[in-house]
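User: structure tokens for this one?
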Amino acid sequence: MAPGALSGILQRGPFRSSVETGCGGSTIVLSHASDHHIAFAIEGKDQTITELRKQSDLRTENVIFIEGETKDTLPGYSFEGEVDLVLMDGPHAYPLPQIEFAYLFPRIRHGGWLIVDDIQIPSVYDLFHFLERESSVVLEEVVVRTAFFRRISAAEHEPDGWVLQGMNRHTILRYSWRDRLRLLLGKS
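Assistant:
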């Protein structure tokens, strides 16, 4: 993450609890800004988690690492209450950012933060674009390639509330023009 984005995290703290997908400099920052931080990350051939634990500025007493791919670890993880901040910087292959969002967004408290890193990547940008039109969050700032959203609505959508989502307010004309024409002409 860009230094300005890391600074943006600190400006929004301190936090009681936070969650991130991926790990690195942001984990160190969140170990200082959060009383309880969970990092869902992959150890990998670079020994990412092991090397991060060796960093003298990591407050290890504030961090729990959940090792494995988020598509496998997030669905079964038992969270203890709401979180103040979620940082999504895990896998970028489609639809993994969207899957992470589906599991993590309901955990964010009203007034909490959703931070999406690497919005220059098309699969992540699709999530960013969805969030820009979503009424439950407001985009506060983009720092380099990191978007800071504030959760402004605690209300959950109905189970398949697709019609309530901003991105679904209008159907794709290329496929719905016949239905729209029938409606205009008063025919079923």
